[in-house]
Amino acid sequence: MHLKYMLMASALIAGPALAQGQNPAPDEGQSAGLQDIVVTAQRREENLQKAALAVSAVGGDTLVKQSVTQATDLSRLVPALQVAPAASFTQIYMRGIGSFGANAFAEQGVAFNLDGIYLSRPAAPAALFYDLERIEALKGPQGTLYGRNASGGALNVITAKPKLGETSGFVNAEYGNYNAFKTSAAINLPLGEQWAARLSGQYARHDGYMSDGYDDENTGALRGQLKFDNRAGINATLMLDYGHVGGKGSGGTIMPLIGNGRLGASDPAVVAAYLAQSPTAPVPQIIAKSDGFQNNNYYGAALTANADLGFATLTVIPAWRKTDLDFQSYASAFLIRDIEKSRQGSVEARLANRSGPVNWVAGVYWFDEHVDARQRYDQGSNGLQINSLLDTRSLAAFGQATVTVAPSFRVTGGLRYTDDHKQQLTNFTTMPFVGFVSPATGNFTPIFANIPAVATSDVHFRKATWKAGVEYDVAPRSLLYASVATGFKSGALYAAAGQNYSAPENLTAYTIGSKNRFLDNRLQLNVEAFWWDYRNQQVSHLGPVQVASTPGGAIYAPVFLTENAGAAKLYGIEAEVLFKPTSDDLFTADIQWLHARYKSFGYLAYSSSGATPAVGCAVTPTSRLAATAGAAIFSVDCSGRPVVNAPDWTVNLAYEHKFALKSGANITLGADTRVQSASYVSIDYLAGGRQGAYMASNARLQFEPAGGRYSLTAFVNNLENTTIFAASFQSPVKNGVLYNQLRPPRTFGVRASMRF
Predict the structure, then answer these.
(1) Residue 152: which region, alpha, beta or left (left: phi > 0; alpha: psi -120 to 50)?
(2) For the residues 338-360, what does the mean pLDDT come to?
(3) What is the DSSP string of 356-414?
(4) Quick one: which of 352, 390, 353, 387 has its CA closest to 369?
(5) Widest Cα–Cα separation across the chain
(6) Is 122 left (phi over 0), alpha (psi -120 to 50) or beta?
(7) What is the mean pLDDT of residues 546-553?
(8) How many CA atoms within 13 Å lie on the side-chain side of 616?
(9) 532 Cβ partners below 8 Å, 6+ apart?
(10) Burial class of residue 456 (count of CB atoms within 10 Å of its CB; 0-12, 13-18, 19+)
(11) Percent helix, strand, coil in the chain (nearest 5)?
């Protein structure tokens, strides 16, 4: 990390107060000290400081203060977390473990859960970030208590629930540069003694951060909840939600950056720079346009029912989700046109006891998903059409128990068995450029081959995952814990006439941690050391797949596939410090050091021109037959390289001070920063795909009149206007030409809030 960034970080103490949640419950007699936050990361309510696992929690009020309205905003809140856009999809990485999900075949490597419901689609984490109680970031494999594909961790979004006997609500409205307007509201209504309802919604928009209007936002969402509680052990909450994401969608720009760095893919200067790269005209070219769009709709229904059976509580959660995608994007230097309809149903049933020497939970899980996708990719001198019917059915049984061996010593063990059944019927056609009609006579009309193929799959992925741990109460407010846990991500399908699925990936995590409160509950110090063994990593990229067979051997063409590419070792330490010297001051620091390197990492690359691929790794040619004359297939070896999206150092710092006025009003000044060392955001390992060390800070000034019902806040995010790369993708037909996606520039505005 550059020294200047460390010095700047020391001068500006900043970063979100992760443990300060919405509606916290202070320790008795410690109202002036740090407040507790209740989490359900282990499928039961418990104090975050007493949960023997690596988890960070961000309260709903912090999300509002940080203007979080979409998943990609979460990157600046949790050091272990990196969230990046990919057209209309969302890619979530936890300490470098995640998935480059960019098509209908992809599933997350970090499980995304809404009120305990697993959402499988990479596009699903949209139009959900409003009226939240908290977000929990679970670091490391969650193979025991959670549904599917939690090899790298889990991101739990918990909504605010209806409250019996209470009429309350809030309205937030925000306006800022880029013509940003965001508003969210909620109302809680009592319906007799045993019923309550809550209705909430959000609308968020801003103009594009790129010169051509891309990287905009246009989101609307509604959520309705109805709660029944007879206060005698039976309660249930029904939730219905709808979200719409419109606008032009995510944008990209060519590397190296031109001008101010925010010239979009369809900006004339970027188009000219792209067209100047080989191969040039008359070889067919794709020209990015300003007609990209999103018309994505999300629907959900879920019932969470609990019954106290005396010896245990029975919880049943049937849920249904529908995701309809319709978008067009040029963010990666070529045209992506996607129409995708997915339907997901799931039921989880579990029993859990509430007290006693053995604290246990046991359950079963059923998941069923159907995806109907029509995807088209136009790269100028190469085209691809994929029409897929995809089905996934998953069954699992799980259990975990914590046994109190001695008053201060406990032992935990857990086991889960999962059976994933995946099927596909995919018709796909590759359309490579093969030459011109008659170039000698000046007829440069391009000729494209049409290579149709069919992919069928019917495969099971079965795995037993487990967890073992110990925990010891060193003092009333000091916990020491250690665990070994395993997780797996189910094999991924892709379009190919031959081998068309990857093997599951596996991760074993060793963790030792300590959670402490000192100085009369004013100082919190949590430290976690970890060592992860990552095997059979699934890497998604444009590579060769079999499309035909000939007497001379299999023929390969370029398709976005997922293959098992490597194994990695990751180890490091994370420390979280909260210090509240007075009732009006709060310092926080969350520091992570991570060493993440590939032991082995190899994959196949397709070169349309036959030239050696432009990658920062060892490359050797293969004898595989390419679909067109002149094309070639190479083997790429990136062993020893850093894991993508895994910076060595990440530091979040924050300071907040409240000034009490004689009138009873308050003025709160807050500042936070994220300092991050360099990391790669692409497996190409080129200079253009490397994000250098950076510092990005936020500040806010809030005025709250006496009574606390109203507040007015002025804020600025990314104060330094730092250009930060979120993702990088190499052009499939122009060797070495990278297009990067960027995180937001400096934004500022005012926010008004009212609570009743």
Answers:
(1) alpha
(2) 93
(3) SSEEEEEEEEEEEEEEEEEEEEE-SSEEEEEEEEEEEEEEEEEEEEEEEEETTEEEEEE
(4) 390
(5) 91
(6) alpha
(7) 90
(8) 15
(9) 95, 97, 140, 507, 508, 509, 510, 568, 569, 570, 571
(10) exposed
(11) 5, 60, 35
Residue 275: phi and psi, rounded to 5, are: -65, -25
Vertex 310: Cα angle to 307 and 315 (nearest 5):
25
| Backbone dihedral region for residue 29 (phi beyond 0: left; psi -120 to 50: alpha; all else: beta) | left
Mean of the pLDDT values across residues 99-112?
Answer: 83
**For residue 322, what are the β-bridge partners?**
299, 343
Look at the alpha carbons of 405, 408, 413, 414 in this order and tell me if their dihedral is positive or negative. Answer: positive
- Which residues have C-beta within 8 Å of that of residue 52, sequence separation ≥ 6? 410, 412, 469, 471, 479, 481, 483, 513
H/E run at residue 431: strand 409-438
Which residue type, as a one-letter code, is found at position 267?
A: D
Q: Give the HSE-up count for residue 102: Cα atoms under 13 Å, Cβ half-sphere.
A: 26
Residues 6+ apart with CB under 8 A from 475: 516
For domain 3-755, give the CATH number. Answer: 2.40.170.20
Percent of the chain at pLDDT above 90? Answer: 78
Alpha-carbon distances of 23 from 19, 376, 448, 531, rounded to whole Å: 12, 47, 62, 34
Coil, helix or strand for 735? coil
Scanning the structure block, which residue is given the tokens 């997350």?
A: 108
Given this model, what pLDDT does residue 580 score? 97
**Is the alpha carbon torsion for 563, 566, 567, 568 positive or negative?**
negative
DSSP string, 76-87: GT-TTEEEEEET
Query: At 600, which amino acid appears?
Result: S
Using DSSP's 3-state secondary structure scheme, residue 271 falls into helix
Which H/E stretch holds residue 274?
A: helix 268-275
Count of other CB atoms within 10 angstroms of residue 712: 13
Domain regions of the chain by residue span? 3-755
CB 23 within 8 A of CB 34: no
CB atoms inside a 10 Å sphere around CB 663: 8
Alpha-carbon distance 484 to 87, whole Å?
A: 36
User: Residue 565: pLDDT band by 50, 70, 90 thresholds?
Assistant: confident
Residue 13 has pLDDT above 70, yes or no: no
CB atoms within 10 A of CB 205: 18
Percent of the chain with pLDDT over 70: 96
CA–CA separation, 675 and 615 (whole Å)? 28
Q: How far is CA 252 from CA 248, 332, 506, 605, 615, in A?
A: 12, 6, 32, 23, 20
Q: DSSP label at 692?
A: P
Instruction: Encode burial over 428-453: b for 16+ CB neighbours within 10 A, e otherwise.
Output: bbbbbbebbeeeeeeeeeeebeebeb
CA–CA distance, 545 with 493 (Å, rounded to integer): 12
Rounded CA gap, 542 and 557, in Å? 10
8 A C-beta contact, residue 214 and residue 246: no
